[in-house]
């Protein structure tokens, strides 16, 4: 599996992204619901039955069948639609954030898994070198060219290298399993291939970040909530039209009416004040997010530049020098011009240089993944 394939698998399978998409669909459905008028009410009223005197029995019954409809005045419906649209915008941004977070997690875990693979290869190489060195040391001891203590030290180094190899194998298997868990899968991928980085880092505009867009969207949601509460405080009349049948007279007539709630006790002031407080909270969050994103973007750029410089320095000088030093030390040891201690020191320096390069590449990949996350609002990096 390559990094590109891992990103595609995660996008298609991730439970977090699927859940975010479902929330977008729900928010979209609520827009249509918000635009509907309230349902009319059917009422049936029967008067003057089972009374006394002239009203005994059903002779004087009057039956009225009417339809009543709330007018939804005062901008109620528009306020509901605006609020639903604002929430849909916020949910779409949250979906983008979920996808960006997932992509960063995949890039980071792919890098860790690839680095675990490289560490395993280094451990295999080190174990093979240690075994070969132990064999050569024993031959030299048998020929009287080295004291027995040197062979013991070489065997001890080989044993330690074998233990390190087993630990590297376990770490490599675990990292592959963790990677596929991001896809909602349990069986680890068999192997990884390709590079650790699929992005070309560049400067970003913090003001266009997904976090800033979401903070602004949440402010609009809060403002639309205030408009909803203000609309709810306005008078909402209802009109009705019906037909009345007077049984005794055998006559039919139309009946009309208007009802209007009187805002004597409840004027929705509490909800209005709560909505205004929500706006103040959203505005404070916008300022906080703006400052946070600016620092995050600057740090991400700095970390990528620093990690890239370190990788280039190790590849340019440290690794070639350690490799050549190990080659010369091994030849000198076999020819008797260097001691076992000098060869072990050269092997240790080579191993440390390789490990430093692996760690530097991991740091570069993680920093690039974070920069890609910060820049997720722009075109692909």
From TrEMBL:
Signal peptide: none annotated. It comes from Sphingomonas kaistensis. This is TolC family protein. Gene3D superfamilies: Outer membrane efflux proteins (OEP) (1.20.1600.10). Belongs to the outer membrane factor (OMF) (TC 1.B.17) family. InterPro entries: MdtP/NodT-like (IPR010131), OMP_efflux (IPR003423).
